[in-house]
Amino acid sequence: MMLDNPAAKYRPFVAVDLPDRQWPSKRIETPPLWCSVDLRDGNQALIDPMDHERKQRFFDLLVKIGFKEIEVGFPSASQTDFDFVRALVEQDKVPDDVSIQVLTQARPHLIDRTFESLKGAKNAIVHVYNATDPVFRRDVFGVSKEECIGIAVDATTQIRQRMSEASETNWTFQYSPELFTTTEMDFAKEVVEAVMEAYGATPEKPMIVNLPATVEAATPNNYADQVEWFCRNVTHRDSLIVSVHPHNDRGTGVAAAELTVMAGADRVEGTLFGNGERTGNVDIVTLAMNLYTQGVHPGLDFSNITPIMREVEYCNQLPVHPRHPYVGDLVFTAFSGSHQDAIKKGMAVRRADPEAVWEVPYLPIDPLDVGRSYEAVIRVNSQSGKGGISYLLEQEHGIELPRRLSIEFSHVVQEVADRTAKEITSQMIYQAFADEYLEKRDPMALVNHRLSSDSDSPRVHLEAQVEQQGERLTIHGEGNGPLAAFVRALAAEGNDVEIIDYHEHSRGQGADAEAIAYVEVRIEGEAVFGVGIDESITTASMKAVISAINRYASTQPPAANVTAATLEEVK
Ligand SMILES: CC(=O)SCCNC(=O)CCNC(=O)[C@H](O)C(C)(C)COP(=O)(O)OP(=O)(O)OC[C@H]1O[C@@H](n2cnc3c(N)ncnc32)[C@H](O)[C@@H]1OP(=O)(O)O
Ligand SMILES: CC(C)C(=O)C(=O)O
Fold it and tell me: How many independent structural domains does the chain possess?
């Protein structure tokens, strides 16, 4: 049967009734306990699960980042996982302040095998789960509520017994009512309380209750309501470490984790960059860095994030998206003009006060804090404007364009960007700049010049040699300064140039220092820019004037060069 509305086969999520919810006005002021489940939930979702070498590398990485609880596998499920846990224990690979966590179903032979894998461990968390959701009770397990509680309680009793038989290990017990968020809240509470009793949880010997959004089924405020409801209603809350385990089916795993921590969760299970079943587990990198941007250090070290990303990509054999928050190859890059303009201005303000609160527009975090540089912050394509182009010329080539010149030059770059429909690298921008302003030698080029002055006069005399249309000329002029004298000398040869604006700065330092001069001149009523670069500021300013003359000439019809033949053609 075809439904008129195919969406009618779904039904809305049934929210928990919590009109006096407190979590919306809470703030996260301390980081939660973090537990990485990369080597278990992440691993079970990979096309090719990690082999021993990849698991070991991932484990070492997690330790280095600062995780104190690491779910290392499902040792009763596969020999690889079993052997990995044994190697960690036997080869003493686990630091004393780190607990390894292992998952098992609530089945006696799997629990026994799990304990076998942990023999001799220093600190271990045994994590058992069974599904409590009504659809799973009905369709997957075929059990009543009582039988469902029975599975959890029997497993807990067995685990408690095994723990008491291996007192060399510092044990922690963890229980997950799988699919907590789609379980009736009263029933979830009932199961957890039965498990707490079977384990004998007390404030001195608390257990972890992990409340998973196994499949994310509703907006994250619902999950937060459920966690707050649970924390407020469960008996002996003080005997529990409440943990959440968000998945990302609706794309709101990060929000769910944050809201549930506001709602009272003490601990978060997730993975680096969010690998995991279906759309993934919650991404701990994003969570940690979100906290960081609020001024709360997450207690995990992501200060050099790119090698972490590369290592995780190697271990998971999955790429991290270039737009992944805080880490993707493109997240610190702006292509669009207005963003670039604001970043450029914000960076200039910051340079003047590097200790100030971070407020650079469009950059929620300082790239340096995660080991990235400012280099890729601005990249240029057809969406870019003058701000980005000037930023690259300034940062990478030491050229600080005056505002009006930067407007003019942006049209040159825009033309290249539109024509190629590709990114324009800073090298290409520099080349376009050099072609346009520095390398035109026709019709005029400066060969050399000499300045002199009379001791009793502020005026300078200039003698210069220039090449004009292939002919070498010696020109003379006098003025208040070298540039004025040069303009006079040019005028004497029929090149009328009026200086409208002038800027100069140096680039580089010491023996390599150079001067850059920018002029805006008027030639035959038209305003034209020119740029000159030289070791001497005087020579740079003359070259800038010649650059303007040559640029002006290049825009004129070649009237002077019309040959008799072409005139004949025109006739
Ligand atoms: C939400 C999560 O991510 S939970 C973790 C899921 N991870 C994994 O499953 C990865 C590792 N798992 C495995 O390798 C295997 O499932 C094993 C080795 C654990 C078990 O393998 P098998 O015994 O062949 O069982 P199978 O994989 O078919 O699992 C289904 C059986 O487990 C039972 N089962 C599933 N979960 C549980 C549980 N938490 N507690 C008790 N029984 C359970 C089911 O009722 C079913 O039993 P049935 O065959 O009698 O109907
Ligand atoms: C075992 C549990 C915690 C789990 O992975 C889930 O529910 O997603």
Answer: 3
Length in residues, the chain? 571
Domain co-membership, 385 together with 349: yes
- Taking the C-alpha atoms of residue 464 and residue 476, their distance in angstroms, rounded to an integer, is 7
Beta strands at 240-246 and 514-523: parallel, antiparallel or unpaired: unpaired
Cα–ligand 1 centroid distance for 462 (angstroms): 93
Residue of 37, 74, 105, 147 to test ligand 1 pocket, by largest number of atoms within 8 Å of CB: 105
307 preceded by a cis bond (ω within 30 of 0)? no
Range of the domain at 366: 337-438
Give the whole-angstrom CA distance, residue 192 versus residue 464.
94
Domain termination site, one of 404, 438, 472: 438
338-381 pLDDT tens trace: 999 999 999 999 999 999 999 999 999 999 999 998 878 898 98
Number of the ligand 2 atom closest to the C-alpha atom of 281: 8
Residue 452, strand partner residues: 461
Q: Do 132 and 75 reside in the same domain of the chain?
A: yes
In a domain, 331, yes or no: no
| 535 and 408, same domain (yes or no) | no
pTM of the model: 0.86
Instruction: List the beta bridge partners of residue 453.
Output: 460
Q: Whose CA is nearest to atom 35 of ligand 1?
A: 105
Residues near ligand 2 with C-beta < 6 Å? 41, 103, 129, 176, 178, 210, 212, 214, 245, 247
Exposed, middle or buried: residue 72 (CB in 10 Å: 0-12, 13-18, 19+)? buried
Ligand nearest 183 Cα, by number?
Answer: 2
Ligand 2 atom 4 nearest Cα:
214
Distances (CA, A) of 131 to 13, 128, 149, 207, 430: 18, 11, 10, 19, 63
Q: How far apart are CA 497 and CA 514, in angstroms?
A: 25
Q: How far is CA 373 from CA 155, 291, 396, in A?
A: 51, 21, 13
Give tens-digit pLDDT for 265-304: 999 999 999 999 999 999 999 999 999 999 999 999 999 9
